[in-house]
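Researcher: Going back to the complex we discussed earlier. I've cleaned up the inputs and rechecked each line, so this should be the final set. Can you rerun the prediction on the complete assembly and write out the structure?
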Amino acid sequence: MSEPNKPLPVPNNETAPFWKAAGAGRLEVQRCGACSRHVFYPRLVCPYCMSEQLDWVEVSGRGKIYSFTLVHKAPPAFRGEVPYPVALIELDEGVRMMSRLMVENHTRLRIGMPVRVRFEAASEEISLPVFELVEDA
Amino acid sequence: MASTSRTDSFRSKVAIAGVAESEVGVLPHMTELQLHAQAAKRALDDAGIDKSEVDGILSLGSARGVRMPSIQVAEYLGIYPGFTDSTSIGGCSFEAYVQHAALAISAGLCETCLITYGSTQRSGGAVFGGGNESWLPSEQFEAPHGLPMMVGAYALAAQRHMHLYGTTEQQLAEIAVASRLWASMNPHAYLREPISIDDVMQSTMISTPLKRHDCCLMTDGGGAVVVTTVERAKRARKAPVYLWGSAETHSHNGISAMPELTVTPAAVTGPQAFASAGIRPTDIDVAQVYDSFTITVLMSLEDLGFCDKGEGGAFVEGGRLAPGGEFPMNTQGGGLSFTHPGMYGVFLIVEAVRQLRGECGERQVSDANLTLCHGTGGALSSGATLILGREPR
Ligand SMILES: [Zn+2]
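Model: Rerun complete. Updated structure for the full complex:
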């Protein structure tokens, strides 16, 4: 029996800039022109001040592991990959995003470890941001 | 926030007159609407109140096809309400419904509210975390990374709690062990065979640090609650159960947007509910705390104020939550051992009312005068708290 396809993002007018930048190897998020805070995920209005002045800016791609879990019982499309680490990454710019940690030896993983982004092609159109340990770079 | 005296007035006008479960367990022969209806009939019988008196309906299920649950359930039961609500904030919706019913009744919109839940999550294959619209934030920015939902979200919280406070997997296991001991005294519980901390530790790893026995059951079932005026409840078949305190909130939908992974919505609703009741956590005789996962309980107990933040692990040690322990909790076996048909919130209220009425037989907690129900919904997204009393406040 074939496994179902993995869920892939379908870019729309709100998120296309993020996925376009990811395809070019850049991590971009929104930044509010009114209150100067970085915003992720992409929105029409700033969740802090309701301004519509949200501009796309490239960020450092560096951050820390905020938390992680090693998945043993996966959703159907991911069953061939267990165990794999899924993490919440806190970027240096202050926003948090879910991603994968690309490490061979999972026992090394600790909350707070510095990480940096890289991109993995998931389809012809979509590259996903994933993170590796800075100490591996 | 509204002043205490103002918020008091609406709670003091209502009482819970009837509670019931439908059949629970594995029920491939039943539909979700039948489970709503069976629970509703039993709860009205429990109250001795006729269906013709019901003029408020608050319903929620887990089936994908039912887009307007209160309308569907009301049609099925032949109810024509003056107040209708299908607020959908996950497993704690039912604690919120009691507060909404109290507001509606005290405002004169209706007199008798019927709260119902039904789910064939196990046999009917209702699905959480799948088949969502592809433009949703969770589908674009969470789903591609393969986090199993809901367990993965709670695992992230557990990992961070262990990191910050030194909480151990054995301490989490204590919660599962206690739940099973209570379930052994509930003839309707799905799992009744006692387990040890070692059994929990050796159960299948799902998403670190959470193992099979840290996770709630997946069953079919339903429940219902009748809320009415104090005057009507006094003429009902059973003694009224009074609403002392209540609160509801939510903070995020996706776990990526949770403000702080180890602080749940209970940190808001707990203090508000206790303030509205005019009591302290130490006044609670028996607690019903949503146990979707063991970590849900541990963090809720901290946030509700039963212990300090970070002390939850030590608090639950030594069988404190188990029969005979200092802190009787989830006395029917909880979502971990009794039943968990997608959402569990209604069952917290059913057991709380039965404990206050002294109907719990072997598992009855002596001198149960004040009880707390705390529900948690979604990915630690929402919380709603009730404080119920055997006497009026
Ligand atoms: Zn702003």
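Model: Worth noting: The pocket of zinc ion is lined by residues A 32, 34-35, 37, 46, 48-49, 51 (CB under 6 Å).
Researcher: Good, that matches what I expected from the previous run.
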